[in-house]
Design goal:
The chain has one domain. It has 1 helix and 5 strands. It has a 5-stranded antiparallel β-sheet. It is globular, with a radius of gyration of 14 Å.
Length: about 100
């Protein structure tokens, strides 16, 4: 897994048109694709929110030229495959 050393805050639009801020926790490569592990942060806690209890959201990263977009993983098999790979990797790191 590749570690991100600097905090990167991403602003996106939710299902109901609301602004959602997410902190990029880590970028992982699974099966040749990049996936972002993100946690939702409240606007009033930016940029210092760094709780270990944050719920992680996994999104697929699509890179083109100088732009990077994030998309929801709608395929259950793909999501489960990525989640399992992340879990397995975390267990290996904890054992070391």
């Amino acid at each position: 897994m590749q570690e991100e050393n600097n905090s990167q805050i991403i602003k996106t639009i939710g299902e109901h048109g609301e602004e959602i801020y997410m902190k990029l926790q880590e970028v992982v490569n699974v099966g040749g694709n990049d996936y972002a592990l993100l946690s939702v942060v409240e606007e009033d806690t930016l940029p210092t929110s760094d709780s270990e209890d944050d719920e992680l959201i996994i999104m697929k990263m699509n890179k083109s030229d100088d732009e990077c977009t994030f998309e929801i993983i709608e395929d259950d098999d793909e999501f489960n495959f990525v989640a399992q790979a992340i879990t397995d990797s975390d267990e290996i790191e904890e054992d070391e």
